[in-house]
Amino acid sequence: MMSYVNAFLFGGTMCVIAQILMDRTKLTPARILVAFVTLGTILGGLGLYDKLIVIGKAGATVPLPGFGNALAKSAIKEVDKIGIVGAFTGGIKGTAAGITAAIFFGYIMAIVSNPKTKN
């Protein structure tokens, strides 16, 4: 049960931080998104994000910093395997399934729903 609570608290805290940044600063949501992914990448590259995953479980792996961590870990793994070219191919290989799923399900929802433009 505590795994669920920790995941909720960790993921919720990231959402609260993002909301505070949107409300209190002039940062756009896109810049906050990039900052979160970059933070996850840096922490993942330094090996620190794994410690957050132990505590936050899915609350740490699903949000944007978790994506950055996946990019960093995949790139590091590919660099160790094939050399410097792995810095460019590793992130793509490591996150391809998640990106593909997001595109596929987004497309399905666009077909199923009745999207309307805002006036």
Automatic annotation (TrEMBL):
Keywords: Membrane, Transmembrane, Transmembrane helix
InterPro entries assigned: Spore_V_AE (IPR014204), SpoVA (IPR005562)
Pfam families per record: SpoVAC_SpoVAEB
Membrane-spanning residues: 32-49
Alphabetized NCBIfam families for the sequence: spore_V_AE (TIGR02839)
Name of the protein in its database record: Stage V sporulation protein AE
UniProt source species: Clostridium frigidicarnis
Organism classification: Bacteria, Bacillati, Bacillota, Clostridia, Eubacteriales
